[in-house]
Every structure is written in structure tokens, then in C-alpha cells.
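User: I'm putting together notes for a lab meeting next week and I want to include a structural view of one of the chains we've been expressing. I don't have a solved structure, so I'd like a prediction I can at least talk through. The sequence is below, exactly as it appears in our construct file.
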Amino acid sequence: MTSSVTALHARAAALGVEVQWCDIQGRRHHVADKALADVLLRLEGAGGDAAGALLTCVVGAVLPITATSAGAACWESESGQVEPARIVGDGLWRAPARPGYWRWLQGGCVQPVAVAPAHAWYPPRTGNCRHWGLAAQVYSLRGSGDGGIGDSQSALAWLGQIHRHGGHALGLSPIHRGMAGGYRPYSPSDRTAFEVVHGSPMQLFPCAAAAVRSADPALDARLSVHEAATTIDWAAAVADKNTWLQRTGSWLREHDAIQWRDCMSGCGGAASSPDAFAQWVVREGWARVQQQARTLGMGIGLIADLAVGFDPAGEEAQRNAGKVLEGLQLGAPPDAFNPEGQAWGITGFAPQALRRSGYAPFIALLRATMADRGGLRVDHILGLWRLWLVPCGADPAQGVYVRYPFQDLLNLLVLESWRHRCLLIGEDLGVVPEGVRRCLASRGVLGTEVLQFNGDESGYRPLRRWRPCAVAMPSTHDLPPMAAWLQGDDLRWRLRLGWASASETATALQQRGRQAALLAERVCREGMTPAEPLADALRLVARSPAVLALMPLEDVIGVRQQPNMPGTVEQHPNWCHRLPAPAEAPAEVEQRLAAVAAARVGGACAAARDDPPEPHCTREVDDEN
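Assistant: Thanks for the context. Below is the predicted structure for the 625-residue chain, given as C-alpha cells.
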């Protein structure tokens, strides 16, 4: 190794850049020097002195704090309460026993410290039924007067269905403010703001919303066409629903002074701005859905979804100028499904800038997404550990892994979970560094167990080997619904897209048939009486030892359209299919929900022989699979 390469690697180590990485088969790859130099050049511009920035720890931990003055020290809480600080060694201090944001004070020295609880919040289990619920792509929900795009009122009917069957949660796809020029829920413009078309004027202001439609028959006709459609014409539907929202605000201002005054109060006096009014509508509408869940006695209610990054030209990037990765985009290294790697066209926060800012943008993001929610799913939670960064304009394979301040970010995540009474789910699929899943589980962050990933050519894993500290699901938004998986629809799509040949597809379809047979065999081996294959798959997931089970609506209804096919934009109809409302859903939906509910009852599930610990468990099964 030459001196220049040695110096390059030393710079990489200082910035947490990994010079080699392992793929999903365990093969080791070395980063090319040029690719490494390109990334370092961009990261070094985001450096700076982080002295005096926020420290984090767990309650009661020993924390190193460098004092610049002598004398007694104390801890000051957010409310101004003061308690003595106990020194336990040279420059080592015992953290407070209560979670919160504290200041360590000694003379003129001030050190802010975020003290996290040992475990994230999780609701207590009531009775003998373990927590379960449904997962919904919000845009796909259908309700009366939704303007053709799913919204908060559309969710209420499904919330009632979940409660009627004894469920506890409704998982939502991201409802962040989106990028211009298309709908991609995981590529937002601003994760602290809402996509306003997911707000419901009919829920909050039925008279005003109806009056606006009555006053403009052409607008009403267009909205009715959108509402009847089976797929969303995003450009047209967004334009018409935005018009409806804005005119509803204008109607209130002119005809209902009392309600308009309430809006002004909720918007901090800024409701005269059309966007501020629309933001209030969507925020208030979903807050009322969560309030309804609590009123019904559901232990969790709504689970939000937090996208991993944001548009480099969007509002979040502009608001956090100087703290955002410059000239780099997030992505994924080459793998079996994407041999060229992936570049997602989104960016994130620079790790050095996060430290220097005291993690202010991250804390603000958590507070915005946890407000009025009972849970938060963190997409690609491995991003707290490291992210694959690709120089803009370069091939995705020319990226590198860059480490992030994992323990600090995890402490803040757990602290805000505790403050908001909001459980945590981490999407931890794919290549996972050794020990990360175990660490997340020890802090009460649920992992993700997916049925379609729990089998291979030799069969499906016994339920006793599924992780208890996890959410169990049959599929995800990036996978075919189970009805489509059973029929091999995704394999035929790969043929249509040119990703596989006819002979490869024929072989894959035969293999899928064997997998379906192995799944049916696993159902029998778990002591279940086989019935409908789709219902069997849902019951199998429900009987897993995972403390939470979420069933995608696509699986419960039995549709075969895949919400999103990774690697496609225009080639596959992504993020556009609408689902029937509960009253219009097939009769089998009631049977499947009842079967899931029965399987989640403690005495009837596989976990009853080895009751899983609560989510602050440390016991993990097959941690690094």
C-alpha cells in the first residue's frame, strides 16, 4: 500500500467511511480509490468542531464530560429542576435516573445531555390477545367524498373494522409532503410536513366541502370521476383535490366565522395561507383518527412511516442548508436483484453536521412524525448505523458505506418514543451488520419479519425461530401481495420488464410452485388445519411469536396488484392502485380478519408454548440470518 493510499484510508477512517464491504452472500468488496476520494471530498466539506454539542446516554449511565472549571456540578432538567451531579471518576459523571433533555452545569460550563430510557415505549398487553392490526397504503384507501385519493376519513372505516375484530393498530404509508412531478411516498420533499391531499375536507368541514362542490359542477364531476377510478391519475387528481381544499378554506372564511377562527387558532394565525390551511386540515384530520383509536380502546392506533431521505432540492434540504449531504445521494450496493446497484435520487443529513448541530434536525423530524401517533416505522433503520452514499452522476456501484453516530441517534429515537408514547418498528431487511439487530432489540425497537423472506428451497422456518421482538408481516409494499405471490405474478412481471428470459421465468414459476407447497407443509407442521392458501398464510404470520403482527390490506382483501416494484418508475404501475372500501370488500375479508384475530389469541398461537418477552427483550432468534 502506497503512502498516498494509506493517507486516503486514514481520511476515510476519520470520517467513518468504510473502505470495504460485504454483500448479501458474504463476499468482501474493496472500494476503488477514486470512488473513495470522490466521497471524501464531499464529506470533508460538511465537517466542523462538535465540541459542546449534545451528548446522549441511557439513564444512570456513566458519562465522560470534560470540565473547564472546578467546583460542584449539577443537573438541570427541562422544567428547571436541579439535582446534584455525582462524579464517579476522573471526568466521569453519573447520568440522571430520569429520561429527558438535561444540562450539566459546573461554574460557567454547560453541557447539554439527552438521557434516554433503556427501552422504547410499548403498550401493555391487555387480556390474552397479542397486538395486531392492518397496514395501509394511504393513497389506496377509499371513502365517500375522498376526491379520488385516500385520506384521513377513508381510514376511519378500516379503523372500525380493526377494532371490531379486536385489533390494535393501523400502519400507514408515508404521508410526508411529496416531490413535485409525481407520487413517490419514500422520496419526499419535506418529512416534517404533510402531503395535503391526504387531508379530508369532508371529515372536518362537510357542509363547506359539499357547498364548494355544489357551486362548481365541473369540479364536482372531475372529483367524482377520480373517486370512481380504480387507479389514480396523480397529476389530475392532485390538482382537483388541492382546488377543493383551497376553496373550502375560502368558503369558511366568507361564510363560517366560528370555524374559520378555529382554523386560525390551529394554524397559529397563518390560516390565510392556502398551504397553512391545508396542512392544518391534514394534521387535524389524522389527529382525530388517532383520538378515535384511543376512544375505542386500541392500544396503539396509527403507526406512521418515516422515509429514510428527502429531495436534495426540496424544502427539508433548503431549511437545513449546511447540514445536508452535498453532491451525494442515498442508494444501495449491487445485489442479486439489482446487479448495478441503486441510486435513489434522495439525500440525507451529513453525519458530522448532525453532531455539530446537536442533532437538532433529527430531533425535530422525530417530533413531527411521532405527533398524534401510537407508533413509528423507520424505513431502512440501518441508516442509523450506515448509509450507502453515491456521488451524484456516478454509477451506484461506485458508492461507499458511511457510518453514522448510531448510539446517539438510537438514544434520541428511544427518548422521543418514550416522550410521545410511540412504539418503534425498524425495517431491518437486507444486509445487516453483525450485532445491529441484537442492539436494536435490546432497546425495544421491533425488527421486521416477512413471511416471503422466511423460506427457501428447503422449507419455511418454524414459527418458534421467528424473532419475538419484531413485527410479523406476510408481505411489504415492495413485494407482491400474497395472492400474487402464490400465482407467480411478480415473476411474470420480471419477464415483461426484460429482467428474466422465458426459460428463466418457467424455471422460477416451477420453483414458486414448490415454495407454495412448502408453505402449505409448514402450515400443517404448525398444527393448523389447511383452508384457503391466502388465509393460511395470514394465520401462519399471526401465530408467530412476534409481539406485533400487521397484515397489509392488499393481503387481507386478496388483490394481486403490487403497490411498488423496485427498480421501475414508468414501466410498472406503482403507487396508484385503489382498494375497495370495507363495505365493498369481498366477503372473505371478514373471514380472514376473524382468522387473524383468533390466531393472535395467546392460548391459540405457537408462542403460547414459549410466551415472548415484552418488546424490551434481548432474546433474539437467528439474529443474523
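A couple of points you could mention at the meeting. DSSP finds 20 helices and 26 strands in the chain. Residues 217 and 250 are 17 Å apart (CA to CA).

User: Perfect, that's what I needed.
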